[in-house]
Automatic annotation (TrEMBL):
Its cofactor is Mg(2+). Residues 12-195 form the Thiamine phosphate synthase/TenI domain. Binds 1 Mg(2+) ion per subunit. 2-[(2R,5Z)-2-carboxy-4-methylthiazol-5(2H)-ylidene]ethyl phosphate binds at residues 140-142, 172, 192-193. GO terms for molecular function: magnesium ion binding; thiamine-phosphate diphosphorylase activity. This is Thiamine-phosphate synthase. It comes from Heyndrickxia coagulans. Pathway: Cofactor biosynthesis; thiamine diphosphate biosynthesis; thiamine phosphate from 4-amino-2-methyl-5-diphosphomethylpyrimidine and 4-methyl-5-(2-phosphoethyl)-thiazole: step 1/1.
Amino acid sequence: MTAEYLRGALKLYFIMGSPNCTLPPEQVLEKAIRGGVTLFQFREKGKGARKGEEKKALGEKLKWICQKNGIPFLVNDDIALALELDADGVHVGQEDEPLASVREKLGDKIIGVSAYTLEEARQAANGGADYLGVGPIFPTKSKEDAKAAKGTTVIREIRQNGIRIPIVGIGGIGPGNAKSVIEAGADGVSVISAIAGAEDAEAAAALLKRELTL
């Protein structure tokens, strides 16, 4: 997994679980991929989230959809599930399992780490993260425990301090502000509600993809 490949895969990064959808998650993912999503993270959290075997069964279906469409399938912070599903990687937050321990379990699979500050970004990059999820960039309602939005300046600061690993911006990103995240130095944008909460996930993804490639 080269950094260059990952930069491309991060371009339009979709995060979703059943609590984020009004339609069946499988349908939403199929539509989002048709619209141009380049990577998917399974994040089954929040009110009504599936647990245990139900969560695993949904993960298997979503992984299969990603596989047949040739896009990476990541799991949010559940290392055991990622290994069970043979996911392409995981994304972990600052409060989740330490990066060194995750790397030991996952080997050369993709590991993304959330970063809110320059110092967190530096530690993750030095610790061997494959990419950084930086944010929240803009105010968001998708995560109940979200920190205050920092704007795109945090991405510029990370880049200006010599951190070169791939970056995806997260938090409140949608049509109209996605391009500014790329202009600040990110390789891609990650979205939840901009696609999962849209009436037409395919059209929503296509609109974002167009903005990112203009």
